Amino acid sequence: DAGVTQSPTHLIKTRGQQVTLRCSPKSGHDTVSWYQQALGQGPQFIFQYYEEEERQRGNFPDRFSGHQFPNYSSELNVNALLLGDSALYLCASSLKLTSQETQYFGPGTRLLVL
Amino acid sequence: GESVGLHLPTLSVQEGDNSIINCAYSNSASDYFIWYKQESGKGPQFIIDIRSNMDKRQGQRVTVLLNKTVKHLSLQIAATQPGDSAVYFCAERAGYSTLTFGKGTMLLVSP
């Protein structure tokens, strides 16, 4: 039973560039959430996808966008990268958009913006 | 072990001791709580969860206590081992909202 997987593991970009991060949810899960984790901080919610639609969004600018595919995998896109976007980007999956549903995290993609 | 400003609180214990990590949550409407363990360079790993209709739940070597009156959550780790060294996060959720994480507590276990 595969857990949550993310790619790439590490990425280096320069300011102004665009980046796409990928996530495959845990087998049987249909909901994907994305988080940004700055060094020494807890994860901050970016958005959540269910049935290929963005269902909830945190306090992140429109430069952050996403997509969910029919197989439940998801992408996070960030445009016009800023130095402050350097962080660990985490994907978490869960089953159904219900309350009290445990989210399982992937290993993350570490993004460095120079 | 509660979060204070931008500094990550640290709890240092000896191997074999019991550890208690505390968390103060902010939303009185939160009805679901999770503890995660995050090792360096890895994603958060689920440890244990508790629903608001409970005040205690036990797992293998771990116990979570919930005090809704004072909005306090704690994680107790019995017979702490060096492999328990990590950053521990509590997370809360109200209804269909998403998880809100605390700032975390670093647990250092000395052999």
What does this protein look like?
The complex is a heterodimer of chains A (114) and B (111). By secondary structure, chain A is mainly β. Chain A has strands at 5-7, 10-13, 19-24, 31-37, 44-50, 53-57, 64-68, 74-78, 87-94, 104-105, 109-113. Chain A is 0% helix and 50% strand. In chain A, the strands form 2 sheets. In chain A, strands 2, 4, 5, 6, 9, 10 and 11 form a 7-stranded mixed beta sheet that branches. Chain A is globular, with a radius of gyration of 13 Å. Chain A starts with a strand and ends with a strand. Chain B is mostly beta strands. Chain B has strands at residues 10-14, 19-24, 32-38, 45-51, 56-58, 62-67, 72-77, 86-93, 100-101, 105-110. In chain B, strands 1, 3, 4, 8, 9 and 10 form a 6-stranded mixed beta sheet that branches. Chain B has a 4-stranded antiparallel beta sheet with strand order 2-7-6-5, with no helix packed on it. In chain B, a hairpin with a 4-residue loop joins strand 6 (62-67) and strand 7. Residues 1-6 of chain B have low confidence and may be disordered.
What secondary-structure arrangement, pairings included, does this model have?
The complex is a heterodimer of chains A (about 110) and B (about 110).
Chain A: E1 5-7, E2 10-13, E3 19-24, E4 31-37, E5 44-50, E6 53-57, E7 64-68, E8 74-78, E9 87-94, E10 104-105, E11 109-113
Parallel strand pairs in A: 2-11
Antiparallel strand pairs in A: 1-3, 3-8, 4-5, 4-9, 5-6, 7-8, 9-10, 9-11
Chain B: E1 10-14, E2 19-24, E3 32-38, E4 45-51, E5 56-58, E6 62-67, E7 72-77, E8 86-93, E9 100-101, E10 105-110
Parallel strand pairs in B: 1-10
Antiparallel strand pairs in B: 2-7, 3-4, 3-8, 5-6, 6-7, 8-9, 8-10
How far apart the termini of chain A lie comes to 37 Å
Taking the sheet with the most strands of chain A, its summary is: 7 strands, mixed
User: How big is the Rg of chain B?
Assistant: 13 Å
Distance separating the two termini of chain B: 21 Å
User: Beta-sheet strand percentage of chain B?
Assistant: over 45%
Oligomer: heterodimer
Averaging pLDDT over every residue of chain A, what do you get? 93
Q: Would you count the extended β strands of chain A for me?
A: 11
Q: What is the 3D form of chain A? A: globular
The percent range for strand residues of chain A is over 45%
| Contiguous uncertain segments of 5+ residues of chain B | 1-6
Number of strands of chain B: 10
- Relative helix content of chain A: under 10%
Order of helices and strands of chain A: EEEEEEEEEEE
> Which class best fits the helix and strand makeup of chain A?
mainly beta
The number of helical segments of chain B is 0
If you compute it from the alpha carbons, what radius of gyration of chain A comes out, rounded to the nearest whole angstrom? 13 Å
Helical run tally of chain A: 0
